[in-house]
């Protein structure tokens, strides 16, 4: 967390420096940044990153909570600002505000089975949870990660996925929508993996992140399996601009995604998601 | 394997979980345990759909071959899944290939036997249809989601 100091305007970014960057996929970059006054974050929170002269966007933090000095962001090059961010070299200076938002309630999963359902780039915002679960593995019941990607070449964090799959204390299943001939794993939507997953629905906490349609299917699949809606958590994306609940751009019915979220439980979110164009 | 053991295995599968004991005994008469080594085919496109498989362990790849593209896997079915829905619908013919992608254990139901028992006992037929419909609908929804290409943000 940034030390606010006595008179810091929350809309004024601090200057942060890109210290390392690497290409995860042709259109996805992960970089580490350093920011003065930064003292950590909670899983699921996001920063507002700005490229001067281009714009500012919210980006989830994808690194481990246990290493508070490292600020890690994974960015897909899809718009003008994310493209500018993704193309920054090491040493570049950007603006940073944050961290913001309601984090994943990982503490709610203590002693319970945990199912993490992620799709596409949605693996980045849940990666801090996975680090936490692995670091404190004995504090949780069965841990399952179900990950879906468009194709084998679109799989994020492939090296880490392979490491996690090799562990005996967590279940990791990966599926792709479109297989290549060299692919020998699951083919189909990520929610189809729920049927084969081992968890006690009455004692499960689930974390779901990915494209919104996928999250709706995922949350419904989990409730169909018997997980209580209040035990299913999703991370929402909306047009966040101020990140402090003032501007209203990210309003979702009665809530602001930036301030009241981005993490919500399904019991609260489901009625809102049923409203078209909300 | 004894009939009782097979009944227990069948009732452990989500498709027939909770099925009444009379119905369970009846459908068990059409069932057998099967195993497929990786790379072997459960069936091929165009053949008569004379079996339906409830997967116990392993992974089955559903494939279609296209000229110049080789075989394309469009879906896999794993543990607790069902392979071979074409047994339900005339002309009872497979519309794709099914290959064991891993060592696969399954319950195989003789489709002719099962259809015959459903025809002769409409209550059983209705129960079986009610149980096959949700996975069919789920598969339809999943296919739609797959077609939407939701990751192309």
UniProtKB/TrEMBL annotation, chain B:
Signal peptide: none annotated. SMART domains: cNMP. Residues 15-101 form the Cyclic nucleotide-binding domain. It holds the Pfam family cNMP_binding. This is Cyclic nucleotide-binding domain-containing protein.
